[in-house]
């Protein structure tokens, strides 16, 4: 699950990381009022940042500076409602603009190859890390945390030294790196990223300029498998950005991803679901979705899956592919027949059910006059033909 | 011979009294697998599966009193990492964890403990392993198998059944079929299984079934190019049409930052001389093309 910058920042703040104050605003007036508070606290300028779960908001014009509250409100009215990669901006983050001296990158990921949490740092911060990885891979430094003891101070120090940090910024860097690691463990995150981790110049209480490290942006992806033990994190799910169809799939326990094609797919198992999509494409069609009903699907899941597929007006044909193991073919067949009776519009369907209780399933499907197929290839070919027939 | 599970397997089922545990234990026994014990803390001294399998409170007791040497885990995600560690501590060397939905971070110290104990963990989130005609541990349906000399290794569940069924239908039997699991952190990788097949005198051909995400297929391809040149191999990669940045059901199946794509994996496999199928049904044909004679 992806969470918004503001939520990511509050999780990092809870681990004691240095994060400049922010407010979240949902209307231009709220932006203006928030800006006024930051100016009153001594800010020279404020930054207004679109809160969306897609990258590239800066390039899309979703991050702007303002020199006074009125300007902030005006900037807010431009960003709120803006479309960024298909997502409507519904809220913005407002904060004092930092006086940035230098930008670094710091991230923590679950690395499959070393099977450890790996911290990555680069002196080339503020740009997308994928871009750095492509163009200057040597600029990214990595260290794998000990699988049992965690990120040790000397490891974090080595990373800080590698990106050129020295006294007095080195020890704060160690604390931040260990804080990222701690956040990852505390929240069951897959990814915790601070980009930029910035050296900012601030005026100290005596009027002299001091430099310090702060986390100016934050991105966290949570492990869906860990959510059950962090009920508090569920409130960070951004329902504004979640497609209602996705929300329904989530409640049904179905893995569903909407795509652009015309052939709705219902499959058990993720690998087989991807393969079914691939074969639809191979035979000249386009899949309308990825849909894994999971193991042991009962008929209410099947009915729900059918509704999800039919909710997409582009769907011209449906392909059901079930390889029964834990899943019983006859239960799926019964569910399909029931869903068929209730469905709002007529869409041709081809069903292939093999494995556990396939014989009984075949009898049910035959009695209901449903089009069937024996092999996966045959099913995909038939579905493509049905979709093309329906389109004509 | 075969690998991982076989005639020498003496299985303890951790979670034998649960719904899945009981159902699949019956299927394993029906297949001829030696199931010597089950565990269910607090029910030690009782019997499961119609009074035929003794229940112990701990894995250590199952090892001591029933001679268990292999474990299969059907325990929910919250308790599964602990179950793996208990098996390691009891000296079990082959541990197969079927459980799905274990948080990735829980698995990091667990795979490390397994490695230090010189044990082997298959999974989690995997369908298990079958050596046809010898032993079936996990949830792969018995009906798809035929005894033979082709090894199968896969990251998937039902897709594995599909591929193995296609092989069986074409008359190509299997030495061992292993599902390694679809999670980001797993105990045994493609590379590990290829090494086991390489050393197995009863495996003469290999089928690999991968999917988008990570780089395990690429690492396996590099190993195959070096060490398996004479072995007929065929592969299938699921997810050619998967959009980047979306998790395709399996926690590990995601194209991120342009890496982990099907195209990249297919190119790496082909560069290693491995034939890659467009559909799982083509796998047996490709093995024959590669010179395999079952």
Textual characterization of the structure:
- The complex is a heterodimer of chains A (392) and B (294).
- In chain A, β10 and β11 form a beta hairpin.
- Chain A is α+β, with helices and mostly antiparallel strands and 392 residues long.
- Chain A has helices at 5-14, 28-40, 69-79, 129-135, 153-162, 170-187, 244-252, 270-282, 299-310, 329-342, 358-367, 376-391, and strands spanning 22-25, 46-50, 63-66, 83-84, 87-88, 92-96, 100-111, 116-122, 140-144, 189-203, 209-215, 219-222, 255-258, 263-267, 289-292, 317-324, 349-355, 371-372.
- The two termini of chain A are 40 Å apart.
- The model of chain A has no long low-confidence stretch (mean pLDDT 93).
- The radius of gyration of chain A is 26 Å and the shape is elongated.
- In chain A, 46% of the residues are buried.
- In chain A, strands 7, 8, 9, 10, 11 and 12 form a six-stranded antiparallel sheet that branches. Chain A has a four-stranded antiparallel sheet with strand order 1-6-2-3, covered by helices on one side.
- Chain B has two domains: 11-122, Rossmann fold (3-Layer(aba) Sandwich), CATH 3.40.50.720; 140-289, Succinyl-CoA synthetase domains (Rossmann fold, 3-Layer(aba) Sandwich), CATH 3.40.50.261.
- Chain B has helices at residues 19-31, 59-66, 80-89, 104-116, 158-169, 190-199, 216-227, 262-271, 283-289, and strands at 11-14, 35-39, 47-48, 53-56, 70-73, 94-97, 120-122, 128-131, 135-138, 147-154, 174-179, 205-211, 233-238, 275-276.
- Chain B is α/β, with parallel strands linked by helices.
- Helices cover 32% and strands 21% of the residues of chain B.
- Chain B is globular and about 55 Å long.
- Classes of the chains: A alpha+beta (392), B alpha/beta (294).
- The interface between A and B is large, with 53 and 64 residues.
């Amino acid at each position: 699950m992806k969470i918004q910058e503001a939520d990511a920042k509050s999780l990092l703040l809870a681990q004691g990381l240095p994060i400049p104050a922010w407010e979240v605003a949902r209307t231009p007036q709220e932006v203006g009022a928030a800006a006024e508070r930051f100016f009153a606290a001594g800010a020279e300028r404020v930054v207004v940042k679109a809160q969306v779960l897609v990258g590239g908001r800066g390039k899309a014009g979703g991050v702007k500076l303002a020199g006074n509250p009125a300007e902030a409100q005006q900037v807010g009215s431009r960003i709120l409602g803006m479309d960024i990669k298909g997502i409507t901006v519904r809220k913005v983050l407002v904060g004092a603009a930092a006086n940035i001296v230098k930008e670094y990158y710091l991230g923590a990921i679950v690395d499959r190859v070393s099977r450890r949490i790996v911290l990555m740092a680069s002196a080339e911060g503020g740009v997308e890390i994928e871009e750095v990885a492509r163009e200057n891979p040597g600029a990214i430094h990595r260290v794998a945390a000990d699988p049992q003891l965690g990120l040790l101070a000397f490891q974090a120090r080595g990373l800080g030294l590698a990106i050129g940090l020295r006294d007095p910024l080195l020890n704060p860097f160690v604390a931040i790196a260990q804080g990222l690691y701690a956040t990852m463990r505390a929240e069951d995150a897959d990814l915790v990223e601070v980009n930029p981790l910035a050296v900012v110049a601030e005026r100290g209480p005596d009027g002299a300029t001091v430099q310090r490290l702060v986390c100016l942006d934050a991105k966290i992806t949570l492990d869906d498998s860990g959510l059950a033990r962090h009920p508090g994190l569920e409130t960070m799910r951004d329902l504004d950005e979640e497609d209602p169809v996705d929300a329904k799939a989530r409640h049904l326990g179905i893995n569903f991803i909407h795509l652009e094609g015309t052939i709705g797919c219902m499959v058990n198992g993720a690998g087989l679901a991807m393969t079914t999509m691939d074969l639809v494409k191979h035979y000249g069609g386009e899949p309308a979705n990825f849909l894994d009903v999971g193991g042991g699907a009962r008929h209410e899941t099947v009915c729900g899956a059918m509704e999800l597929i039919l909710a997409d007006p582009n769907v011209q044909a449906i392909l059901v592919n079930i390889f029964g193991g834990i899943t019983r073919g006859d239960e799926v067949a019964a569910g399909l027949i029931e869903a068929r009776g209730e469905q709002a519009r007529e869409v041709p369907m081809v069903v292939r059910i093999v494995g556990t209780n396939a014989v009984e399933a075949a009898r049910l499907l035959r009695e209901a006059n449903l089009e069937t197929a024996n092999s996966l290839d045959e099913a995909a070919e038939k579905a493509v033909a049905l979709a093309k027939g329906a389109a004509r | 011979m075969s690998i991982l599970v076989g005639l020498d397997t003496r299985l303890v089922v951790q979670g034998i009294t649960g719904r899945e545990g009981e159902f699949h234990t019956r299927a394993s026994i029906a297949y001829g697998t030696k199931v010597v014990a089950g565990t269910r803390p607090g029910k030690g001294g009782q019997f499961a599966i119609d009074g035929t399998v003794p229940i112990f409170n701990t894995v250590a007791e199952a090892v001591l009193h029933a001679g268990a040497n292999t474990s299969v885990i059907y325990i929910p995600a919250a308790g599964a990492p602990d179950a793996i560690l208990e098996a390691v501590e009891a000296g079990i060397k082959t541990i197969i964890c079927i459980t799905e939905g274990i948080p990735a971070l829980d698995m990091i110290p667990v795979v490390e403990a397994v490695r230090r104990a010189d044990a082997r963990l298959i999974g989690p989130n995997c369908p298990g392993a079958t050596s046809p005609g010898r032993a079936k541990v996990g949830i792969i349906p018995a009906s798809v198998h035929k005894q033979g000399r082709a090894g199968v290794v896969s990251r998937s569940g039902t897709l594995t059944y599909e591929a193995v069924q296609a092989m069986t239908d074409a008359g190509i039997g299997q030495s061992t079929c292993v599902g390694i699991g679809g999670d980001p952190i797993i105990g045994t990788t493609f590379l590990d299984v290829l090494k086991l097949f390489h050393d197995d005198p009863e495996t003469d051909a290999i089928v690999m079934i991968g999917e988008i995400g990570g780089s395990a297929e690429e690492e396996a391809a590099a190993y195959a190019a070096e060490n398996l040149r004479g072995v007929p191999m065929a592969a299938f990669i699921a997810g050619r049409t998967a959009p980047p940045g979306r998790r395709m059901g399996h926690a590990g199946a995601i194209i991120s930052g342009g890496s982990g794509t099907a195209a990249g994996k297919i190119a790496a496999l082909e560069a290693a001389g491995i034939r890659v199928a467009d559909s799982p049904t083509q796998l047996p044909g490709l093995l024959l093309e590669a010179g395999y004679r079952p």
